[in-house]
């Protein structure tokens, strides 16, 4: 079964998260749980999430990444696929902001 590896490193400036593998199925729940737990205790610190090693993201994985964006995470993506996923999430976020704030 494909897995998602989640590595969290505490740095002087905040946290660095490195995700590798497939963000789908039960691994989405694991990432969501880890994120909530970590952000609860470190919510004010900067967080950088490296998704360069992610090879696939399903719809529920996109939702978790979207929540991470909303919580202020900054992302590193080097591949075409991960860059596309993050660009799509940003476009959705911008549409949501325009819709609920009345900005055009």
Can you walk me through this structure?
The protein has 104 residues and is α/β, with parallel strands linked by helices. The protein contains three helices and four strands; from the N terminus they run ββαβαβα. It has helices at residues 26-42, 59-70, 80-101; strands spanning 4-11, 14-23, 46-57, 74-76. The protein has a four-stranded mixed β-sheet. A hairpin with a 2-residue loop joins strand 1 and strand 2. Helix 1 packs parallel to helix 2 (59-70) and helix 2 (59-70) crosses helix 3 (80-101). The longest helix has 22 residues, at 80-101.
SSE series: EEHEHEH
Radius of gyration: 14 Å
Q: Beta fraction of the residues?
A: 25-35%
Q: Which word captures the global form?
A: globular
The number of strands is 4
Main structural class: alpha/beta
Terminal residue distance: 45 Å
**Overall pLDDT metric:** 86
Write out the strand line-up for the largest beta sheet, numbering strands in chain order: 1-2-3-4
The stretches of 5 or more residues where confidence is low (pLDDT under 50) are none
Number of helices: 3
Largest sheet: 4 strands, mixed
Helix coverage percent: 40-55%
Features:
4-stranded mixed β-sheet, 49% helix, alpha/beta, 104 residues
Q: What's the gist of this structure?
A:
With about 100 residues, the chain is α/β, with parallel strands linked by helices. The chain is about 50% helix and about 30% strand.
Secondary structure layout plus pairing:
Layout: E1 4-11, E2 14-23, H1 26-42, E3 46-57, H2 59-70, E4 74-76, H3 80-101
Parallel strand pairs: 2-3, 3-4
Antiparallel strand pairs: 1-2
């Amino acid at each position: 079964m494909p897995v998602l590896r989640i590595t969290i490193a505490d740095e002087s400036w905040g946290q660095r998260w490195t995700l590798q593998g497939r963000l789908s199925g039960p691994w989405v729940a694991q990432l969501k749980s880890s994120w909530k737990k970590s952000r609860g205790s470190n919510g004010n610190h900067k967080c950088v999430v490296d998704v360069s090693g992610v090879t696939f993201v399903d719809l529920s994985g996109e939702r978790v990444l979207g929540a991470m964006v909303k919580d202020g995470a900054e992302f590193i993506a080097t591949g075409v696929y991960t860059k596309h996923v993050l660009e799509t999430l940003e476009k959705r976020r911008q549409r949501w902001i325009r819709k609920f704030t009345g900005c055009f």
